[in-house]
Write a structure and sequence with these properties.
The structure holds 2 protein chains of 2 kinds. By secondary structure, chain A is an alpha/beta fold. Chain A folds into 2 domains: 1-31; 45-177, 3-Layer(aba) Sandwich (Glutaredoxin). Chain A has helices spanning 2-29, 75-91, 107-117, 130-134, 165-177; strands spanning 45-47, 54-56, 65-70, 97-103, 123-126, 142-146, 152-158. In chain A, strands 5-4-3-6-7 form a 5-stranded mixed β-sheet. In chain A, a hairpin with a 5-residue loop joins strand 6 and strand 7 (152-158). Chain A is elongated. Chain A starts with a helix and ends with a helix. Chain B is an all-alpha fold. Helix content of chain B is 65%, strand content 0%. Chain B contains 6 helices and no strands. Chain B is rod-shaped. Chain B starts with a helix and ends with a helix. The chains are: A alpha/beta, B mainly alpha.
Chain lengths: 178, 150
């Protein structure tokens, strides 16, 4: 009786340790790493906040894409909103698509932001921040450039594009010509 | 005439705002601040002054003023930010594991401890039993030794 109890206890302990090890391995193999330039842009399908329906990044394959992460509570994002809209109007005739990704934000405030700043390019909501995490976001605003093949190109911009206008233009050019 | 109608309509609209305000709020900001996480700083709202936290507090205040219940506000925030916005997992479905596993762990640990203590106490009892009698030869040698010491 005592021996079988002891064996059961040992078996349970082994199962518990194996479970914890499994969790550790799963965590280590599923860690998100910032995507590399030249590598594929992490895909997403997110709800649009500038209209109805969802936007799938994969559906934009064949077009250069500028992805701008922002939030209505982010003060620097207000500063770059006008320049982003101007750039979108300037480059859309060349087939460039701008996508705003609203990060960790209240939807109603985000819509007010879009109206207030006259943003007309498609904007999606990343309320949980999961897509931002996949891109290795360190904060907002951040801007990424994706070429026609769905690969990240140029140098991704941490902070406002207004302070890094040169890199912003070269990022769009890289997306257009690669 | 049209101007008068417009003026009356505008006045009615202006009064409708305060009238729609909640006279008996169903929850409070201080309660929800402890239940909701700040998505960018990973602490509860009451521990955070981050801009994202301030924005969510403002949203909660607006909903409280509209007489929303805590459940309604939490549901809206979950729809907006996902389940991770809640400081504690809900008491249903798979999330129940998060509540029951620690309790199960504590109970299992307590049971193991109880068994260990019980077995240890039994060992101690057997330790205190009187030692077996010495054999006559050893007994005699000890007596001789003690006699010499006297």
């Amino acid at each position: 009786m005592t021996r079988s109890l002891k064996l059961t206890g040992q078996a349970l302990a082994l199962v518990a340790v194996a479970g914890l090890l499994g969790l550790l391995v799963w965590r280590l193999t599923h860690q998100t790493h910032a995507p590399k330039i030249g590598g594929p842009a992490p895909n997403f399908t997110l709800r649009r906040i500038d209209g109805s329906g969802k936007l799938d990044l994969a559906s934009l394959r064949g077009k250069p894409v500028v992805i701008n992460f922002w939030a209505s509570w982010c003060v620097p994002c207000k500063g770059e909103a006008k320049m982003l809209e101007q750039a979108w109007r300037q480059y859309r005739s060349q087939g460039v698509v701008f996508v705003g990704v609203d990060y960790h934000d209240v939807k109603s405030d985000a819509r007010t932001f879009l109206t207030h700043h006259g943003i007309t390019y498609p904007t999606v909501q990343d309320g949980s921040g999961m897509i931002g995490d996949r891109y290795g976001l360190t904060g907002v605003p951040e801007t990424y450039f994706v070429d026609r093949n769905g690969r990240l190109v140029g140098t991704h911009i941490v902070g406002t594009i207004t302070n890094q206008a040169k890199q912003f233009r070269s990022g769009i050019r890289a997306a257009l010509h690669q | 005439m049209t101007l008068k109608i417009l003026a009356v309509a505008a006045a009615a609209l202006a009064l409708a705002g305060p009238a729609a305000a909640c006279a008996h709020p169903k929850t409070s900001l201080s309660y929800l601040e402890g239940q909701i996480m700040c998505p960018t700083c990973h602490t509860t709202l009451d521990m955070s002054e981050a801009p994202a936290a301030q924005q969510i507090k403002a949203e909660i205040s607006r909903r409280i003023a509209q007489c929303w219940s805590a459940k309604q506000i939490e549901d809206e925030l979950i729809g907006n930010f996902g389940q991770g916005i809640l400081a504690a997992p809900p008491h249903k479905g798979f999330d129940l594991l998060a509540w029951w596993l620690p309790i199960g762990g504590v109970l299992a640990g307590g049971a193991l401890l109880a068994v260990g203590v019980w077995r240890w106490s039994r060992t101690r009892v057997s330790d205190t039993e009187p030692p077996p009698d010495l054999d006559p030869e050893t007994d005699r040698q000890i007596d001789e030794l003690l006699a010499r010491m006297d």
